[in-house]
Each structure stands twice: as structure tokens, then as C-alpha cells.
Design goal:
By secondary structure, the protein is of the alpha+beta class. The protein has one domain: Sortase (Sortase, Chain: A), CATH 2.40.260.10. Helix content is 26%, strand content 23%. The chain has an eight-stranded mixed beta barrel. A hairpin with a 2-residue loop joins strand 5 and strand 6. The longest helix has 59 residues. The chain is elongated. The termini are far apart.
């Protein structure tokens, strides 16, 4: 007997669609995880570069710049012009002697010279020698030393971030006084990254000494006042007579020879400014 022919009934497998969706979701999560790990690694490398490598580079460069400045100061300055120029200038001087007036009286009073140590600027009639010609923009020309912090760092003209501050230098605010001059010798420096020369500026206390060396001259300032926090636009702190425009209780009211050190605060931010002021105590050769 021939068995009856039955219609073919397709079998439906339950759950295959769900497994496919799960596999697709797992793939998306895996890709997202890989992306997160990659982004994290890139961020970590950027942090390492910013916090470690820039410090290492800037510190090495700043130290070498200090050595270069000091080597240059040991070399004698060229005071006399070359022979050809000297002859030309001598001829001009001979021609000009006929119109020249009488020579000054050797006993007459003259401006203070830079030939040796003088009285303290705080003493009546005391004055420091001039710092010399203003340096070119972004040029390093002095060395700042803060014994309490173990800091030795070059000072350059200007506060341009890339050309000065990111090199680990202290930058001189344009328009403020030069070392030893009456007025305010104002400096800025990074607190974090790029050598962070002013990282521990908050550790300074009244009475600490800060010295500034130039060729043949040293100016010593003594810390007098500290402004823990002010806004970044408080330009009163670098005025000739420094006084905070935001917190008028901080600063000075009498003319003098001042130094101002500014940096960002709190650490790892640039929201506010920390300010340290000092007054010129003495100068020497």
C-alpha cells in the first residue's frame, strides 16, 4: 500500500531574528568600546605631552638660556668701534670741536653712574644704576633668581605665550619699568606646564629675597605684599605704583622701585591671578 502523500509543511525556527539583533548590538558596543579606548589613549598622550614633555623641553631650554646669558656676560663688551669707523668718527669730532662749548667742570654734579655699589634706594638720595637699553621684543636679557623656591629662570622682553612664556621664561610686561628703575618691574610666568617657573609662587613670604641679574649688575628685591587672588584684567597690579583695582586694600600708595610677579591661580586653571610684590632693597656689581 502506498502511503499517502503529505503536504510539505515549512518549519519556522523561533529566535533567529533576536540572535541577529543581539549580534548587531554587540558589534556596535564593541566598536564603541574600541573608540572609547582609542580616545582615552589619545587624551592620555596629550596629558602626558602637556604635563610632562612640555615641562621637560622648557626646563632644558630655560637652563641652557641662563647658561648662554651668563657666558655672554663674562665676555668683554665691545666698547671701541673698528679702526675704519674710529678714524671717521675722529675726523668728525675734530670738525665739531670748533662749535663745542667749554668742557664741563670736573667737580660738577652728574647723574649716578654704574661704576659700583651705591646707597640703598630707600636711603635719602639713593638710586640704582640704569638697567641699560631696552631689549628687543622676545629677547632674553636677565636672570631671575628666587632662593626660597630654588628658581633660576631667564627673563625675556614681552609676555607672548609662544615666543616667551611657553619656553619656560619669565616675561617682562611691556611698558613697565626695567630692573632697578623707579616704577614697577612686572613679570609673568606659567604656573603649570611649559616649565612652570612660577608654580610655587604661593610659597613666598614677606621678607623673602628675589634677585635679578643683568650684565655686571644685580638687583635685590624683598617680598613685601601678596595678593592671593584677583581677576586677569586687574591691571592695577602692574601699574608704576602697584595697587589692585579690584581689591584696593592690596598694594602700595607711594612711588618706589617695585617688582611684581604674576601667575595663574588656582593651579591647572587660568581663571584668576596670584600676585607677589617686592621693593628694591639693594644693588651691586
Amino acid at each position: 500500500m502506498v502511503p499517502p502523500v503529505r503536504d510539505h509543511i515549512p518549519v519556522v525556527v523561533q529566535g533567529s531574528g533576536r540572535r541577529g539583533r543581539r549580534a548587531g548590538l554587540a558589534g556596535v558596543l564593541w566598536a564603541a568600546g574600541e573608540l572609547a579606548v582609542t580616545v582615552g589613549a589619545v587624551v592620555l598622550l596629550l596629558v602626558v605631552h602637556q604635563m610632562w614633555w612640555t615641562n621637560r623641553q622648557a626646563l632644558a631650554g630655560a637652563r641652557e638660556e641662563v647658561r648662554a646669558l651668563e657666558r655672554g656676560w663674562e665676555e668683554p663688551e665691545r666698547l671701541a668701534p673698528p679702526a675704519a669707523e674710529a678714524d671717521t668718527e675722529a675726523d668728525a669730532e675734530v670738525d665739531a670741536e670748533a662749535d663745542a662749548g667749554p668742557e664741563p667742570d670736573p667737580g660738577a654734579s652728574v647723574a649716578p653712574s654704574a661704576t659700583g655699589p651705591g646707597p640703598s634706594p630707600s636711603a635719602p638720595g639713593g638710586a640704582a644704576p640704569p638697567a641699560g637699553r631696552a631689549p628687543a621684543r622676545d629677547q632674553s636679557y636677565a636672570v631671575l633668581r628666587i632662593p626660597r623656591l630654588g628658581l633660576v629662570v631667564p627673563v625675556a622682553q614681552g609676555i607672548d605665550k609662544k615666543a616667551v612664556l611657553d619656553k619656560g621664561y619669565a616675561g617682562h610686561y611691556p611698558g613697565t619699568a626695567q630692573p632697578g628703575e623707579e616704577g614697577n618691574f612686572a613679570l609673568a610666568g606659567h604656573r603649570n606646564t611649559h616649565g612652570e617657573p612660577f608654580r610655587y609662587l604661593n610659597r613666598l613670604r614677606a621678607g623673602d629675597e628675589v634677585t635679578v641679574d643683568l650684565r655686571g649688575q644685580r638687583y635685590t628685591y624683598v617680598v613685601g605684599r601678596i595678593l592671593p587672588e584677583t581677576t586677569e584684567r586687574d591691571m592695577g597690579v602692574v601699574a608704576p605704583v602697584p595697587r589692585s583695582a579690584v581689591k584696593p586694600g592690596y598694594g602700595y600708595s607711594e612711588p618706589g622701585a617695585y617688582i611684581t610677579l604674576t601667575t595663574c591661580t588656582p593651579e591647572y586653571t587660568s581663571k584668576y591671578r596670584l600676585v607677589v610684590w617686592g621693593t628694591l632693597k639693594r644693588w651691586s656689581r
